[in-house]
Amino acid sequence: MRLAQAQPDPSVPMPTAPGQAASDEPVGNVVTLAGSATVTRNNEATPLKLKDDILPNDVVRTAADSKLGITFNDATTFNLSANSTITIDNYVYQDGGKDNAGIFDIGKGTIAFVAAAIAKTGDMKITTPTASMGIRGTTGVIEVPDGATATNARNVAIKLYPDPDGRVGRIEVNDRTGTRLGALTLGASGFTIRPGMGGGRVIAAPLAISLQQVRRDQGFVREVHAAQRAGRQIVIRQRALRRANQIRNNPARPQTPRQRSNGLPGQPGQPPLPAVPNRQGQQQPPANSPQRAGQPQGLGQSAGQPQQGLPARQAAPQQAAPGQQQPDLQRPRSQRAGQPNRPALERPRAAPKKKRREEPRR
């Protein structure tokens, strides 16, 4: 089985955009694929690949020895076994919306599902040739044999299993006319749809699930839960790519470059810098200098100091005030104007060491 690579993160909410239910907007994506599968759209069958979009009214089929996983925008996920068919009759979902709804028709095959936001906040239904189900936030397995009809004893089986967090939801079972037949509320419980007495309307009879069938169904359930975890991220990424392509291909929408600001005055979105008055004796910058436009020499820099980032030797000499003699920086400090010459200090000579008298040996 090929599984689209994505980091599972069930806590990530599924973002939506207004108008998500438009017929030309994808409502889901292929997240797992083993073997081959096709989608019939506008009466044309096309092979499916990983991450392909799923649209409303699509008819999805799997071939023999094939499996397919589909995750929808609200994270509802279906896992189709071999020779299965499902039609997306209706799908409307908007995050926080009140009109969320989904209708999925299973034509044949064994299909596992795990419901998400639509079943919890809206109206999710699954239909079969002989029964319809109201899904109230849960995991289930639906088996529809080929050629199932209301008069055929070999009919639809509906099973309820716990969600990934261990909770058990509710499946309300009705006939095709909407008449209530029963409800499933216990894990590993099920109904089978059978014709009534004398060929009357169908009934929902309790289904005895063998241990072998439970183990097989648990494998289907684990696969659909894994597909949901990976599918959440795939749906988000594919929607982000579509939005980026729409912006790129829409010349009528101008794209204004964003300017980064470090929060300091004078940056975009910040107040202008205040003008710094020159000190007495400081040379005025020319009119075309950027300092005349209110730009300071540097933050925390006063007049007469070298500019930040430049060595002190390259800085301009300080201008003297009127009537003050300009210091000569080239002469030694002791010979500058206004400073008396200091005599050179002579180091005292060390006293000669006295020779030590040697006493004669005895």
Q: Could you walk me through the main structural features you see in this protein, from its secondary elements to its overall organization?
A:
The protein has about 350 residues and is α+β, with helices and mostly antiparallel strands. The protein contains two helices and 18 strands. The termini are far apart. The model is unreliable at about 1-20, about 295-305 and about 310-315 (pLDDT under 50).
Key words describing this protein structure:
362 residues; alpha+beta; Jelly Rolls; 18-stranded mixed β-sheet; 2 helices; 12% helix; elongated; disordered N terminus
Brief account:
By secondary structure, this protein is an alpha+beta fold. The chain has 2 helices and 18 strands.
The CATH topology assignment of the domain at 31-248 is Jelly Rolls
Outline the low-pLDDT stretches: 2-22, 296-304, 308-316
Q: Which class do the helix and strand fractions yield?
A: alpha+beta
**CATH architecture assignment name of the domain at 31-248:** Sandwich
Helix content class: 10-25%
Radius of gyration over all CA atoms, rounded: 42 Å
Shape: elongated
Tell me the span between the first and last alpha carbons.
Answer: 113 Å
Specify the biggest β-sheet: 18 strands, mixed
